[in-house]
Amino acid sequence: MKIPVQKLKFNGAEPLHFEEDVDVSDIVEMNNDIRQIDPVQVKGNATMQGNEITFHFSIDGTMILPCARTLVDVKYPFQVDVIEVFSTSPYYKEEDESEIHPVSGEMLDLTPYIKENVLLEVPFRVFSDDKEVQENALTEGEGWELLSEKPTEQKVDPRLQKLQSLLDDNNEEENR
Q1: In which domain, by residue range, is 29 found?
Q2: In a domain, 125, yes or no
Q3: Residue pair 6/22 in contact by the 8 Å Cβ criterion
Q4: pLDDT tens per residue, the chain (176 residues)?
Q5: Do residues 35 and 74 both lie within one domain?
Q6: What distance in Å separates the CA atoms of residue 30 and residue 99, rounded to the nearest whole number?
Q7: Quick one: how many helices (H) and strands (E) in the chain?
Q8: Do 109 and 24 belong to one domain?
Q9: Domain count for the chain
Q10: Which residue from 114, 113, 107, 111 is spatially nearest to 3, judged by alpha carbons?
């Protein structure tokens, strides 16, 4: 999504409104959990004061992520409100932690900043709400078992069953 700097200068104090669908599908190839992402809708406005350009925009879209339990595809809708500030000053140099980005040339490309904000919206984990998927999900396997927060009976290892009976006998004698 490229915006000409001249267009912002021409608008003066009036904000420049924009709305566009942006294809960010190449972020799927990065090392993250996003399996698929549709084009995101970006809409907002830009204002210019002196050498600073301020963009206020929102990003709406849906990404496909793996379920943390079953690894099935889960649609995750998201909406992000973003403020990005740019400087057209030839003397401005971007520092490491700076919130102001330098503009080089006559076109300002918002696509990298859109991708960055989409990646920041990827949640740590998602779970599928589909009942059929939850019912067919594995709950145990060889050497592992899914534990829930529900209280369960404590299982005694059969090899230690004899020791448990000795402890029970000792407790009964002490209570007499």
Answers
A1: 2-120
A2: no
A3: no
A4: 787 777 777 666 678 888 889 888 888 888 678 888 899 999 999 888 887 888 899 999 999 888 887 778 888 899 999 898 888 776 666 665 667 777 777 888 888 888 888 888 888 888 877 666 555 566 666 777 766 676 656 676 777 777 777 777 666 666 66
A5: yes
A6: 24
A7: 4, 10
A8: yes
A9: 2
A10: 107
